[in-house]
Structure formats: structure tokens, C-alpha cells
Design brief:
Elements: E1 3-7, H1 12-24, E2 28-33, E3 47-51, H2 57-64, E4 69-72, H3 78-92, E5 96-100, H4 119-130, E6 134-140, E7 142-144, E8 152-154, E9 164-166, H5 167-179, E10 187-192
Parallel strand pairs: 1-2, 1-4, 2-3, 4-5, 5-6, 6-10, 7-9
Antiparallel strand pairs: 8-10
Length: 194
Amino acid sequence: MPRILILGANGGLARNTTRVSLAQTDATLTLYLRRAHRLKNPDPARVTVLEGDVLNADTLKAAMRGQDVVYANLAGEMEAQARTIVDAMHATHLRRLIFISSMGIYGEVPGQRYSSVLDPYRDSAALVEASDLDWTVIRPGWFTPDAEVEYTLTRRDEPFRGHDVSLNSVSDLIVRLATTPGLHVRESLGISRA
């Protein structure tokens, strides 16, 4: 029964992944977000909701104690948040990190040029990849609300395939990573419906 800390728990992907995790696993979840009143606890027996900012190292370290996996689903000051996460994981001896980024951060999407709007995603992923943690970076395509779970994975040095991917597909990958020790550790995965 893994204990999963979800950072940025009120994001659309995080909320979908919380739902999928509760339905498909016996994991216990800690939902971490800046304004906890925005999120209703979906299962008080298995879910704890904590209010905190990822940039607050003390609060973040307190949330990490006793966890097995950190899943970061963030926006905003991503580079600073990635640095705080890596440092807090070192301080609490946590190893497993699943970090959401974006397709295109390596200029890997055929026919599309790299854009500076991706800088926060690229820079934060670079910090995570330079760490000695057991990380997996996920680079999803554009989210769709489709119910399907169908996706193709590409590695860092492969051209990205397709463009869109359903939230359920990305959540399926996150849940598999969080509950399968060693799966895709130290890999950067593009995910799309090819």
C-alpha cells in the first residue's frame, strides 16, 4: 500500500489521478495544495488534505515524512519549486519522484520549433534530471477529456508522436509509476495518443 504525496493537488490532472488512484489501487494519498478549502476530501479513510506552498521548505518536508512517492503536478515558479522538492526529498530521504513537465521541452515535437514559453518546464525538468533521485519526468501532449486509456510513450531522444492525450491516459501512467517499483526510473517519457 504505497503512500503517495500529490503536490499541486487541485490541478485538473492531479484531481483526475486522485480519482483513478482511489478506484484502482489501495494507496493512501496526501493531497498538498496552497488553499486546502478548494478541495473536498474524496475519501477521508485514505486521503489526507494538507495546506502548504511547495516553496515553503519546512511545510513541504513535514508533508514528505512517511511518504513513499512524490508526484508533482505544478505550475508557476517551476524551477524554484523543483529545487525545493529535490532538496526536501534529500532531507527526508525520499527517493521516488514523478514530475509532470510538457511536450516540446527538448524541441522533440516534429514540425514545431522550441518556444520560450516552455522555459519553466525545461529548466525545472533539467533540475530534476540532474538529481540523484529515482525520478521520472512525464511530458504529456495536450489534455483531452476523453474516457479512453490509450497512449504511446517516447523516450527523451525520440521524436514525439501525436499531439493529444486523454487525462485518463496520463493518470494511468502516473498510477502505474507510483505503484510499480523501478518502473521507468530516471527516464523522461513523452505520452500521447499516436
